[in-house]
Every structure is written in C-alpha cells, then in structure tokens.
Amino acid sequence: MLNKKRNHFYLMFLGLIVLSVLFSGLIAANHGRSVAKSYKEITGNINGVKIKFDSRFLYFPVEYHKIPGGEVKNKEGNAIKEIHFVSFRASLPNLKFIESEIKNNRSLYSNIDDYSIVFSLVDDYRHFKGKNGLSLRLNGILSRFTEEYQIKHPRRVYDHEKDELVKVSNLKYRLDEGEHGLKRAVLEGDYTEKFHVWNETLYWDGEKDGIVKNLIICQSGEFIDKRTKHLCELRFEYQPWGANITVRFREINLPMWEDIRSKVIEFLYRLEV
After folding, report:
1. pLDDT tens track for 257-267
2. Which of 33, 105, 208, 229 could serve as a FRET partner for 200 with CA atoms 20 to 30 Å apart?
3. pTM exceeding 0.85
C-alpha cells in the first residue's frame, strides 16, 4: 500500500513538472510573438525611390510629408507614404544596424561612441545660382566670423579666471590645405582653446563658392569634462535619392571619413526595394 501511494505521489510530481515546462514554453512563445508584433516593416518613398526597413532600427521616428494621409498613389494605385526624414544608428566598421528604442527627445549626438555612427537623410537638397546647400552652409559659418559681423554681433564668453563675461570679437578662420584629402578652416582667436558651440573646425572638398561635394564640421576646443570626446558631422548629397545625408561620428574616426561615406551609401542602397 505504501509503495502504491509513493508511486502515485511520484506520478503527480512528474505531471506537475511537465505542466510547468509546457506552461513556461507557452508564455515564452507568446512573449516572443508580442515582441515580434511590437516591430513593423516600414515602406515608403523618397523622391520616387521605394525603400523598406525594420522599425526597430530607427533612431528617431520617421517624418512624413504633410499631405493628405501622408500618402501618394503609385502606378498600381497603391498608397505609398512619402518619407521626409529617416535616421539610423549603425556600428563601425561594417555599418550593421543597432537596435534601439525610438525616442523623440534624444540628442543627435547621444549614443555615439568610437564604434558607432548615427546617420540621417532629408529628402531634398537645393542649388542656388551655381551653389549647393553645402556651399551655402559652409559660407554661412565662415561669414559669422568676419570683422564686420563680429563688430555688430560680438560674442560673450565666461572667463573663469576673471569670473566674468568678456566680449570676444577677434575670431577669424584660417584656411589651409588641410588633411584627409580635404581643405580646412581652423578658427583662431581668444578663447578658442576651450570648447564653445561656435568653435568648429571645417573640412570640405569641391568649390567653396560653387558645388561643395562633402562638408565635415568638427567640434573644437578643450572640454571641461576630459572624458567628453569631440564629434564630427559629415554632410553630402545622395543624388540617386535626391537626398541630403548627415553622418555623425567621433572625431577619432575622421581619417576614415571616405570609408564611412561609402559604407553609408551601400547601406542606403540595400534599403531599396
């Protein structure tokens, strides 16, 4: 009798274990399905080029053109959303997608380390009287440091030694042949040894007063927090999509800017449907 009760107990115990395993598997399976459902495949047009990507790899939410329903009809009569802005984060050196939670309020420069970049595109670029948008941006920055502009709009910088705000109006860009196959403009003058939002080193190729092919803007000056690293912003036109591309990366990766640019283009090409 004792053996029968013991066997009965063992059978019940084994049954509970089996049920527990099955129940855990069911929960895991349902959880997996819920995770999969939280992501979706996004399809849209950029100036007539159809692209497709997984929503989990977006760095910012996609911005669409503000047209009725955000959609247009293709030749087959199907609705296709017109994308205005899209961004991704990818790893170096091979530019593999990095999954991240989409946030509206994150910084353009956050989550960038020595082994990753954040890049984005806007679906239009403009040319004005023989100049493109990159040339206008470059000359716009340079023009803010002419003598005439600084007299009208002097900058004020906090001097820690004097413990006061001081006026700075002797800043000037020095243009040279640069490095990394690019021309360069280096800002010189008082207080440029420290970081300020206006303290930037510029690199470009092409014609400064015509068509600039690539423009790189890098932070300059010493940060108060020594752990902070300088970042650079590469801008170029991607003509197959009629889009402006912006790539942000650590300054340590500046020597490989051409390789980064090529890989971004390959990356974008793979999104085409």
Report:
1. 999 999 999 99
2. 105
3. no
